[in-house]
Amino acid sequence: MGIFSSIKDAIFGHKAAEPKTDTGGVFTGTAPAATDSSAATQTVDVEQVLAAKAADTKQDLNWRSSIVDLMKLVGIDSSLDNRKALARELGYTGALDGSAEMNIWLHKATMRELEKNGGRVPADMLD
Hints:
Blueprint: H1 3-12, H2 32-40, E1 44-45, H3 46-56, H4 67-73, H5 80-90, H6 100-116, E2 119-120
Parallel strand pairs: 1-2
């Protein structure tokens, strides 16, 4: 599992694995693929989830713009090695040196990928 997958799982949870409740006999349980598919396409409000996580922590994290703080917030080691791995996963072509340029790019690319994977992300976190 890659770094991005770990970030996504920490934010999205494992909703796709949760069973759907019976809706008065409409679904008989004979079509689990449809149930899993509909659960997987639910939109997750990324900002809301992260804000709730931030409210539960005693740390003052700037997760809205810092990839280091975002990773810390979701419980992932924010070391340079992990940020390099994330940069490779997301297609960063610059120097893998932990520069401000790399970190800013990583945060925005992570947010774009979260959006591509069913997250609702505020526009100011994408550009």
